[in-house]
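Q: My labmate handed me this sequence with no annotations at all. I'd like to see what the chain might look like in three dimensions before we decide whether it's worth expressing. Could you predict it?
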Amino acid sequence: MTEVVHSDLVDEVLTLTLDSPANRNALGEALVAQLLDGLRAAERDPGIRAVMLTHTGGTFCAGADLSEALARGADVAEASAMGTSAMIDLMRVILEMPKPVIAKVDGHVRAGGFGLLGAADIALAGPRCTFALTEARLGLAPSVISLVLLPKMTARSSGRYFLTGETFDPSTAVRNGLVTEAFASADDLDAGVASVLAGIRRASPQGLAASKMLATAAVLSGFRGLAGQRADESAALFASEEAREGMTAFLSKRAPRWDLSVSAD
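A: Here is what I predict for the chain of 265 residues:
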């Protein structure tokens, strides 16, 4: 199997790098499996204090990659259900592991990329980041990723960006509560990461675990209670006529029939 998630351990911090830039680090089967393996191994290893998630290429993560399931003969609804299950597993592992997870992002964040970012304990963004929740434009909704976004984003910001699909920048992401801190340059981002990791390396493993439990308790409570419901909602949307139109239009590079921003000829 091609390695699409690289592991690097330095001073008890394990960096997991998403490295599938050709498909914008989409959550295909290999990437999901390797990322879960890395996270679970870090959770078990007493020599690992924290995990950092980062990426190669201009996109942190573009969401689920349904192409493999579709190629095996699954329909869109079945393929989307597999993607939803994988996303829930990833977010749950990040939330439940008793070690901090830091996201270092300097690229585009879309769809399931928000799930990884929202589940992380600390999210640091570089100047190349852009963010957009465009599901509503496809006849869908950010159903599953809302489990980690709604507890962290302000109510007004989720109300706006869930509905409009507008692209927003790192400074707006900080104001929204999605990102911990934004940096003006790649060098500044590196320095910010170094500062965060220095603080984590000064903390005891027990102190980190207990502190993370406090910080994630409310998110985890909602996650465990609503994950199944959100997965069912997502499945129903993917199976709908509007979603089929939205995805067909997207793949055909045309506007869907409901898009009123397109001027009539």
